[in-house]
Amino acid sequence: MKRTIETIIGSAYVLADRPALGGVAALNWVAGKINILKEDLTVYDPTGADAAYDGDIYVIRFDIKNITRLSFRISKRDISKYCFVARRAATKRDVTITMPAAPVIGETYGVSLIDPHDREVVYNGRKIHTYVARTAVQADLTDALVLKINGDPTSFVTASNAADDLNLVANDGVQFLSEKDRFHSFLVSNTDSLVGAVITENTAHDPGAGTFDEVTNLEFNYDLGYKGHLNRVIYEDTPDRYADAACEYAQFVIEHDNAGSDTVSNDSNHGSPLVTVVALKYNGTGAAAFKTAIEIYMDLALDSNQG
């Protein structure tokens, strides 16, 4: 089912920091700040005066060009799904392959590597690196394979000598707009005389969650997809971008207005659910407080079926 998505990317949430709305003067309201407003456009105080509030809310952000932007109206009774995605750091796959202690001179040794992300895996995503041993020294064989692998201009791993064994670490990849993974993954198998060697995974591959790459792609898709042009070739970028390359984010996904919505998706001819996505810097001010506030509003402490 198609969804109409509103994306709010913020740097901080502090209950006391608010815009000049509802007859209340602005306080510490600078670009990137977000807050939660009630229907009358006053700030929602979940642990204070508004603990029993049952009306609608908005998420609001102060934009770069002195514009205050509201999310979709969120009604508690219409919330069908809620998901909190904690920030998780991305990691590169790192493996070590044991090398023969005494290579046989004249014997061919090698490794086979596959990049499962490569759409042309048969041509570009499969690499077989081999070397004919010239000495019976383990370090010489490892160093030769390191040179072979790192000398390949299209290699998707970086090789090194780790105590005379072969260490492989995934390279950064070219990220597509439809993907959130910025690192190559890779599969490794032994060929020829390395059959039976031990492959030790030092670090598993993980694309992470709330990374800058993921959040900026989310913002890009919002700017140029549901709320703008679908042609991403002509409109490659937008002038104002809120995702910060130096930060990672906690994410809050709220699907609401699921039944009887009069909102029509740009790429369908029927009503579509509204989804409000809030990405808030996990290492900034207020990600935990925002989580508490939005979950109190949805009564998650009382109703475990929400989310």
Description:
With 307 residues, the protein is an alpha+beta fold. It folds into 2 domains: 4-84 and 209-297, no CATH class; 94-203, Immunoglobulin-like, CATH 2.60.40. 13% of the residues lie in helices and 30% in strands. The protein has 3 helices and 14 strands. It has helices at 138-150, 212-226, 287-297, and strands at 4-13, 33-38, 57-62, 68-70, 81-85, 94-97, 108-114, 126-132, 157-162, 165-170, 187-192, 199-203, 249-256, 274-285. The protein has a 7-stranded mixed beta sheet with strand order 4-3-2-1-14-13-5. A 4-stranded antiparallel beta sheet has the order 9-10-6-12, covered by helices on one side. The longest helix has 15 residues, at 212-226. The radius of gyration is 26 Å and the shape is elongated. The chain starts with a strand and ends in a 10-residue tail after the last helix. Mean pLDDT is 77; it is low at 175-179, 226-235 and 302-307.
In summary, what is this structure?
The chain is of the alpha+beta class. Helix content is 13%, strand content 30%. It has a 7-stranded mixed β-sheet with strand order 4-3-2-1-14-13-5. The chain has a 4-stranded antiparallel β-sheet with strand order 9-10-6-12, covered by helices on one side. A 3-stranded antiparallel β-sheet has the order 8-7-11, with helices on one face.
